[in-house]
Each structure stands twice: as structure tokens, then as C-alpha cells.
UniProtKB/TrEMBL annotation:
Organism name: Microbacterium commune
The protein, known as: Aldo/keto reductase
Domain of life (superkingdom): Bacteria
Pfam family, one: Aldo_ket_red
Domain NADP-dependent oxidoreductase: start-end pairs: 18-305
């Protein structure tokens, strides 16, 4: 199994491959066997960072990863990121539910400790941050988690978290916000400024916008199902313009379109490792090529302009 590139994940002390393998499809559209094959390929190409959530397939995604880690004996070599707060049994970030949710994830993953717990604010914007971080401190002191990330935290909540950190509470060090060439508004602005000012590591999810930015889906007739509906929303003048520039840059560099989309993200300040979902083992290599692609400044600018 190969050793890949490693970059520091902000100030967590973790060193990871600059692309996290997302497990959103595990146990939903992908079975145990295919999921394991995807994980095997990712590690074979030098990957070492896996991302899941307690709400993915009702916990089935975590269960699949746990079985794979145990079967391969790789726990010590994999950096495990888990988004907590969306499981139906323990939703939100209230103290009691947060402890129960982390315990549930540890059980399903069959591990003693989670490397990065991403606090998911999607269902919970009302919990008192001070209470949440006090609970995180207890979980960390108990050896159940190593470091803290945030998902869908607005900029002002990250500022509040940093003020609390200066008073001794655990520090948020990683941020996940959906971000890509066609989904720009949520991250570009206050969130990016705060991430830069606080030296946060950004690990953006939806890096390929449900597969649209891999260039695989170019007609509304080819877009079917739930993902198809999401794709159709991007098959407009702006989306087609982005695909055209992606095609040109991919041809110039002789790499897949998906690799260029990922390389554009990695060229953005504060972005450390996009979270990317794979649907089949043969897709893993083209995704991981993105970590080795160096775009010219003019190519980055052209891609950015196309998505404006």
C-alpha cells in the first residue's frame, strides 16, 4: 500500500492526504462489498483520511467503515472524521444528545476515539455554544475525540467559538462548508475571512456538486433520480460555461475533469482537503489525481471567472 502526499490538517497535529474520502454513499447507494473496494483503492493510492457522518444511511456508513477498519487492521493509519448531530436518535448539539451521539458513532465504528468530530449545526442553531464546547472538552478529556471541527457554522458562530477558546474551551480547528466551482456563495465572504484569520483548516464537502463537476452528466435527459434533480439545477448557462473551461484545462493537462475541479479547490486559500465521494473503485484514481495537479494561475482565474 502506497504512502501518499501528506499535509497538516490545520493545528490538529494530524497529517492527511489532501483529499478526504467521503462515505455519504456507503450503505445507501453502495453496498458493503463495493464500499470496502473503494476504501481499499483509496488507501492503495496513498489516502489516509476518511469522512462520514452519524446520519449517513442511519449509521450504516459508520458500520461499514468500522468493519473495513477491523478487517484491514488499519485504524492507526487512518484519520477518521465524523460529522455528529444528524442521527435521528440523537439530533442536534445539546450536551446529552452530543455525548450519546459520539458513543453511538464509536460503537458503530468499533473504535475508541474519533480523530475529528465535526459539530453539525444543520439541525441545531439554538444550542448554547458554551455548553456544547464544555461537553466536547469532557469527551476529549475522556479520550473519545481528538480534535474539533464545525459543519455549517456561520462566520459569527466561529468568532464566538474563538472567544470561548481564549477563555479555555476547546478550539474549533477544522471547518466543513459545501463549496465548489458552482457553489461559491456560502463560503466566499465572511466565512473564508474568518477561516483565514483563525488559521482554520477547510475541508469542503460536495466538492464535485453531486457529480456534476466530474463532467459525467451533461444533458437533462441523462440526469435521473435524486441526484439527477440536483444536477439539472446546474445545467444552465453558468454550469455549461464552467464545464467548457474544465474540459479545456483537463485537455491541456491530460487529466480527468474531476481532477481539475478538485485542483481548483486546493488552489483556494485555507482549503486543505476537499471531501469527495466515490461511487465505484475505478473512480478513485481520477479523483486522487486532483491532489497532484498544479494549475497555472491563469487556469485558476479562468475557472473562477467561468463560475462567477
Amino acid at each position: 500500500m502506497g504512502e501518499g502526499i501528506r499535509v497538516p490538517l490545520g493545528e490538529t497535529g494530524l497529517s492527511i492526504f489532501p483529499l478526504m474520502l467521503g462515505a455519504a454513499e456507503f450503505g445507501w447507494s453502495i453496498d458493503q462489498h463495493t464500499s470496502s473496494a473503494i476504501l481499499d483503492r483509496y488507501v492503495e493510492f496513498g489516502g489516509n483520511a476518511v469522512h462520514t457522518a452519524d446520519g449517513f444511511s442511519g449509521g450504516r456508513s459508520e458500520h461499514i467503515i468500522g468493519q473495513w477498519l477491523r478487517a484491514r487492521g488499519l485504524r492507526d493509519r487512518i484519520s477518521l472524521g465524523v460529522r455528529i448531530g444528524s442521527h435521528a436518535d440523537n439530533p442536534g448539539l445539546g450536551s446529552v444528545n452530543l455525548v450519546r451521539a459520539v458513543e453511538g458513532s464509536l460503537t458503530r465504528l468499533a473504535v475508541d476515539c474519533i480523530d475529528v468530530v465535526y459539530l453539525d449545526a444543520t439541525l441545531d442553531s439554538s444550542s448554547v455554544l458554551e455548553d456544547t464546547l464544555a461537553t466536547v472538552e469532557w469527551l476529549r478529556d475522556a479520550g473519545k475525540i481528538r480534535s474539533v471541527g464545525a459543519f455549517r457554522f456561520p462566520a459569527e458562530r466561529l468568532v464566538e467559538a474563538r472567544i470561548l477558546a481564549s477563555a479555555g474551551y476547546p478550539r474549533i480547528e477544522v471547518v466543513d462548508e459545501p463549496y465548489n466551482l458552482v457553489r461559491r456563495r456560502g463560503f466566499e465572504g465572511d466565512l473564508r475571512l474568518v477561516a483565514g484569520a483563525q488559521n482554520l483548516a477547510v475541508t469542503p464537502s460536495h466538492a464535485l456538486e453531486h457529480g456534476f463537476l466530474s463532467g459525467q452528466h451533461r444533458s437533462k435527459s441523462a440526469a435521473v433520480g435524486v441526484r439527477g434533480e440536483q444536477m439539472k439545477g446546474n445545467l444552465n448557462r453558468r454550469g455549461i460555461r464552467v464545464l467548457r473551461v474544465l474540459d479545456r484545462v483537463a485537455a491541456e493537462l491530460s487529466v480527468p475533469v474531476a481532477a481539475v475541479s478538485i485542483a481548483w479547490l486546493l488552489a483556494q486559500r485555507t482549503v486543505v482537503a476537499p471531501i469527495v465521494n466515490a461511487f465505484a473503485p475505478q473512480h478513485v484514481e481520477e479523483l486522487m489525481q486532483g491532489a497532484g495537479v498544479s494549475l497555472l494561475r491563469s487556469q485558476v482565474a479562468e475557472l473562477t471567472r467561468a463560475g462567477d
